[in-house]
């Protein structure tokens, strides 16, 4: 075999080898895309979930390790759909967002759905907590200070003591005995 | 306590009662930061003075008492007041009374009891502390079948009468009698024929540990001494932490 023929065969072999290696390149490329463009992966995943796609063993790519690339992810329509879904999620609370991913949202639903009642913005706590009840000051109205017949002033009690011969009982305190909360 | 029928009846029958406020009651507010706040008054700094008609102090019950002990102690003081004019010298009688009570509390932890109706005995006896004071527990020994009062840890305050069985009130009563009455007797012994205005500040500062001249009621040291964020403290906090005496607030009453 001439040198030329040998070179030609080698070249053919290299070309054949390239073709054979191509899936491996695709694997690398796919992994790279998944790794470097997590948003893509997210979009794919979202599309899958929205379409109700569940990975099955048969759906696994022939080449191990390659994530299933949704061919339609390059499609404009497909790319936009998750955006609508994301907009929808914006009106959800974080905890609710994961739940929302499993919800099948028709493409036609572009208008944000009102969040559930329990997730709606609540009124400020101030209006809930404090203004419902009157303050202590308001509640601290004057009351009858027990069943004891109190004199209004010390001097009055002392004058009464002179008359009755009874001792004076002077009750000293902080606050006021005739306050409801003293 | 003054809503209790027994207490009210005893006071109305035997005394000319009057109440005064020495200052506004301190309150504590906790803001939980979520719109919820609770506000509570700090109570307990009370004193019951028994006075003669001219305002001379016969004796003082410091702090809160449980119902039965309060009635018993008021009854004792009623009789001390009753015997004063019957003694040879009321001032000496009163001084002897405080001296013997202080001694009894110091040695036994309990005050002596006052014998009632001593002057109505068939045998005319000279009224003196020797003849009217009896050892602690004397009256209980004369009564048979007296059951100890059942106390409760957490009373239902919505039910009338539950407060009378509150264990904390009984604990406070015991502390008042064991630890506060003694200094009160010593103080009154040092200030014969004192009027309430003469001893109120000392009573609150030294016996009840709530200095009414101090805007922080003597708690300044506890509140400010080890608090690192001094910029949060009020201007007079540093003085309070050093225990500097504060000028009496204008609002506080003299009596």
A few lines on this structure:
Chain A has 182 residues and is mainly alpha-helical. Chain A is built from 7 helices and 1 strand.
Structural overview:
The complex is a heterodimer of chains A (182) and B (255). By secondary structure, chain A is mainly α. Chain A has helices at residues 3-36, 38-50, 76-90, 94-101, 125-129, 136-139, 154-164; one strand spanning 168-174. In chain A, helix 1 (3-36) packs across helix 2 (38-50) and helix 2 (38-50) packs across helix 3 (76-90). Chain B has 255 residues and is an alpha+beta fold. A two-stranded antiparallel sheet of chain B has the order 2-3. The longest helix of chain B has 24 residues, at 167-190. The model of chain B is unreliable at 247-254 (pLDDT under 50). Chains A and B meet through helix 5, helix 7 and strand 1 of A and helix 1, strand 1, strand 3, strand 4 and helix 2 of B.
How are the secondary structure elements laid out?
The complex is a heterodimer of chains A (182) and B (255).
Chain A: H1 3-36, H2 38-50, H3 76-90, H4 94-101, H5 125-129, H6 136-139, H7 154-164, E1 168-174
Helix pairs in contact in A: 1-2, 2-3
Chain B: H1 5-14, E1 16-23, E2 27-31, E3 37-41, E4 47-51, E5 57-62, H2 67-83, H3 90-108, E6 113-114, H4 129-132, E7 133-134, H5 138-142, H6 167-190, H7 196-207, H8 220-224, H9 237-241
Antiparallel strand pairs in B: 2-3, 4-5, 6-7
Helix pairs in contact in B: 1-2, 3-6, 6-7
